[in-house]
Amino acid sequence: MWMYLGLLAALFLGLHNLCKKHAVQGNEVLPVLLGTVCSGFLLLLPFFIGSIYFPEFTKQIGFHITSISWKTHGFIFIKSMIMATSWILAYQALKHLPLTIVTPIRSAGPFFTFIGAILIYQEKPNFLQWIGFSLIIFSVILYSKIGKKEGINFKRNKWIFAIIGATFLGASSGLYDKFLIQNLTLNPQTLQFWFCWYTILILLGILSVTWFPNTVKRKEFKWRWTIIAVGVLLQAADYFYFRSLQDPDALIMLLSAIKRSQILIAVIVGGLVFKEKNKRKKLVPLLGIMMGVFLILYS
């Protein structure tokens, strides 16, 4: 069941990436990010209020937000710091790079998670899993070659380093999620609610210095319906992902790879919607990544 929940998370992540590309194109990145997190927070807020005044009902429907210690709040705040940094880097890169380049680089996330899963959680990959991960990394290298034809030099373009940094931090957060869900026994909605709250506080602190005082930047911001869609879709994806992690048999390195099947939606649909170049050539490494994910699932 945890693998199917991972696939559901991948579906919502793929749709989330499409909406995110539309939300940030020609727009101010940080207020867009704040808007998406606020949208997710407002989606969860009724469950928080319901958990205070109607606890039996929220428990019955499976969306009760539990009381947690200050120490646990501290652990969630650390996750918010990691992900806020990752998102800022990723959103900036997405604004300046084609979706069909950004998404495959993000697909290298399982490799970082793979290393962490072996070193931290002693997860033991078998032969097919090794092949699967190798295929994913090789396919990402292939994408870099195609990216050069779009005027993107992977060695000199700072947004490439930004998306690599975002991918590494995202993978670190994935490893941290297993600790939060399994070791601290947090339920998904409790983690999601407080994570959104602390991320909003972090972003408000950054924006109060970099964006709110700047009249020109404030005028450049454009509100789009996809800002709300990004927040809602991300919460849906995270919910299914955290539910899958609640299974003690769930392997974080495999879940991370399964989530990368979102690339199918991002590259094919994104290529059609945003009219990005070299779509046919990108299908070759896309198939490589999908084959790598399949081998991991099959194993």
Instruction: Write the element-wise H/E pattern from the N-terminal end onward.
Output: HHHHHHHHHHHHHH
Helix content: over 70%
What is the rounded Rg? 19 Å
- In DSSP terms (H or I, runs of 4 or more residues), the helix count works out at 14
Indicate the low-confidence ranges by residue numbers. Answer: none
Strand content: under 5%
* Helix-strand makeup class: mainly alpha
> Ends: how far apart?
16 Å
The count of DSSP E runs of length 2 or more, i.e. the number of strands, is 0
**Can you tell me the overall shape?**
globular
The average pLDDT score comes to: 85
Structural summary, described in words:
With 299 residues, the chain is mostly helical. Helices cover 80% and strands 0% of the residues. It contains 14 helices and no strands. It has helices at residues 2-24, 29-53, 55-61, 70-96, 99-106, 109-119, 127-148, 158-183, 188-210, 215-220, 225-245, 252-259, 263-273, 279-298. Helix 2 runs antiparallel to helix 9 (188-210). The longest helix has 27 residues, at 70-96. The mean pLDDT is 85. It comes from Flavivirga jejuensis. InterPro entries: EamA_dom (IPR000620), EmrE-like (IPR037185). Keywords: Membrane, Transmembrane, Transmembrane helix. Residues 2-143, 158-297 form the EamA domain. This is EamA family transporter.
